[in-house]
Amino acid sequence: xxxxxxxxxxxxxxxxxxxxxxxxxxxxxxxxxxxxxxxxxxxxxxxxxxxxxxxxxxxxxxxxxxxxxxxxxxxxxxxxxxxxxxxxxxxxxxxxxxxxxxxxxxxxxxxxxxxxxxxxxxxxxxxxxxxxxxxxxxxxxxxxxxxxxxxxxxxxxxxxxxxxxxxxxxxxxxxxxxxxxxxxxxxxxxxxxxxxxxxxxxxxxxxxxxxxxxxxxxxxxxxxxxxxxxxxxxxxxxxxxxxxxxxxxxxxxxxxxxxxxxxxxxxxxxxxxxxxxxxxxxxxxxxxxxxxxxxxxxxxxxxxxx
Length: 306
Prior knowledge:
By secondary structure, this protein is mainly alpha-helical. 75% of the residues lie in helices and 0% in strands.
């Protein structure tokens, strides 16, 4: 259990500071699409280098390619672009709280897609509390930015991202044990980045003209906020249930709020406090249901091929 929670904390640190780094990069004049392209490209190179060091070739299993392609769209292309756009209209803490919903939506999707991960009454209660928190967050009109923002628009984009990420996590869990995590990561990052790049060429043209500060922030986003946490997440999926692995969502909003206030002069407004507490309460109730069942650390039945 110690290694599991270390993994969750490290992944949470990477994803939690991602919104802050993205908002700082947007302030440098870099577009949301360009940030997503560069971030994915750097992560892809990191995976390729890692695989080369380990002397692993191109993934040869159909499962690895299938999972990687689905994850490329659901856990990279869609959330990267939508979250980057949303961060123009809401704080990193606001978006971090939306990301805390990942365990809730993972539990809902897992109920229909995975054997043994049923949506019990207690989990449904957690979902209801968390959704009440989202409603409070959006109705309050608080975005966490010093100069207003568009919290409803940002919230909708955040919810779409959450659902896409939750679906990808459940899909990857369904085939856990049948692929090497790093093989899937390579396909995941490459396919997602190429998808974003193709759309970016049509919408914005060839990216370029970034400042040195922006490039430094993008490098941090690619390595520390993308490559590292995704690899850890794949490892977690092989050790624990899909919903429990997504508990990294506990850590992300706390880190995002603290980092945003400290580094970007974001504000902890009443709506964010009330909505955030309800969201985290809902996630806590969901987590509690798994603890009562004693199934958080149930290992994957299929063997680890790595």
